[in-house]
Amino acid sequence: KKLFVFGGFHDNNASYRYFNDLYAFSLESYSWTKIETSVAPPARSGCCMVATGDGKILVWGGYSKTTVKKEVDRGTTHTDMYALVSNDKGDAKAPAGSTSYKWVSVKASGKKPAPRSGMAVAMAQNGKAYAFGGVMDTEEDEEDVRGLFSSELHVLDTAATTWRKVEVGAKARKPEKGNSKPNQDEPEPESAKVVSDDGIFTMTVGGASSGPSSTAKSGTNDLDLGGPSPRMNAAIVVCKGQLYVYGGLFETGSRQYTLSDLYSLDLHKLDAWKTLIANSLNSSEWLGSDSEGESSSDENDDDDDDDDD
C-alpha cells in the first residue's frame, strides 16, 4: 500500500523550478522513498494522475514554463500521457524485495480534452477516470498571459485509454414524440429545505434561484442544465454512482476567486447537474486591491480635474 507523488513546482518570487521526480509514501511504515527511473516525463505541475485497476499509474497534461530571456518566461501546456508500470526485468541495483518501476509513453485515442492544466480527476469503480475543468493559455506575449477556463467533463477508459466527452442532458434536449412544446407548468421555486436524498450529504440549502441558470429557456429545447461554472483545481470525487464537484479557482483580469459551491451529477442518468451549495460570488464583495486599469482610470480623472482648475 503506497501513495505516489509526481512533479509539482516551487516559486519563491525570485526563482522557480518545475519537477519530474517521483516519490512513494508507504502507508504501512509511514516512510518516503524516492523512486529512480531511467527516463521520466518532462517536468510539470497541475497534471492529472490516477491509479488504474491493473496496477498502473497514468499521468497526463499539466503546465510548465521556461525562461526565454531575462525576465521573460514561456509557458507550455502539456498534452502527453505516460504510464508508470512495474519493471518486470527488475533492477539489479534495487534493494532485495523492492519493486522497480519505469515510465512508458501512452497514446490515447478518442475525443481528447483540449490542452489544459489544473484539471480535476476522480476514478470510478468501473475503471473510468472523470476529468473536469482546467485552464489553457489563450493569449500570451512577453508581458501578458490570459487563460481560458473550462467547465467540460471528459471520461477516460483507463483500460482502453480512450477519451469521450460527457454530454450532460443530451436526452433532455430532445423533445418527446407528440410533446414538442416546452412544459408551461413549471413549479414555483421552493423555500429552503433539507437535502439528504443521496445518502452522502445532508445539508440545508435555499430554494432555486430566480435567475436564468435555474429555468429552461422558454420556447426552445435548449435547456439550461446548471452545473459548475468554468474553473481550475476543483475537488471532485465519485461515490455511489454520483460525481461531486466542489470549489476551485477562477480568474478574471487580475482578480482570482476561490469558489465554495458544490454540485452532483448522476453518472447513470447524466440528465442534469444538481446544485447542493450554490455559487455565492454574485453576493460577494471584492476586498482586494483595484486593477491597474482601474487605477489608471482614477489617475486620468484626477488629471481632468486639475485641467478644469
Could you characterize the architecture of this molecule?
The protein is mainly beta and 309 residues long. It has 2 domains: 1-107; 113-284, no CATH class. It contains 1 helix and 22 strands. It has one helix spanning 292-308, and strands spanning 2-11, 16-26, 32-34, 48-51, 57-60, 63-69, 72-77, 81-86, 101-105, 109-110, 120-123, 128-132, 135-140, 145-149, 153-157, 162-165, 193-195, 203-205, 235-239, 242-252, 255-266, 273-277. Strands 10-16-15-12-11 form a 5-stranded mixed β-sheet, with no helix packed on it. Strands 4-5-8-9 form a 4-stranded antiparallel β-sheet, with no helix packed on it. A 4-stranded antiparallel β-sheet has the order 19-20-21-22, with no helix packed on it. It is globular and about 55 Å long.
Number of helices: 1
Strand residues, percent: 35-45%
Strand-pairing-aware structural class: mainly beta
Whole-number average pLDDT?
Answer: 79
What is the spatial order of strands in the main beta sheet?
10-16-15-12-11
Distance between the termini: 76 Å
Query: Main beta sheet, described?
Result: 5 strands, mixed
The number of distinct β-strands equals: 22
Contiguous low-pLDDT stretches (5 residues minimum) are: 178-196, 204-223, 292-299
Residues in helices, as a percent range: under 10%
H-E order: EEEEEEEEEEEEEEEEEEEEEEH
Radius of gyration: 24 Å
Summarize this, please?
This protein has 309 residues and is mainly beta. The protein has one helix and 22 strands. Residues 178-196, 204-223 and 292-299 have low confidence and may be disordered.
Task: Produce the secondary structure layout.
Layout: E1 2-11, E2 16-26, E3 32-34, E4 48-51, E5 57-60, E6 63-69, E7 72-77, E8 81-86, E9 101-105, E10 109-110, E11 120-123, E12 128-132, E13 135-140, E14 145-149, E15 153-157, E16 162-165, E17 193-195, E18 203-205, E19 235-239, E20 242-252, E21 255-266, E22 273-277, H1 292-308
Parallel strand pairs: 10-16
Antiparallel strand pairs: 1-2, 2-3, 4-5, 5-8, 6-7, 8-9, 11-12, 12-15, 13-14, 15-16, 17-18, 19-20, 20-21, 21-22
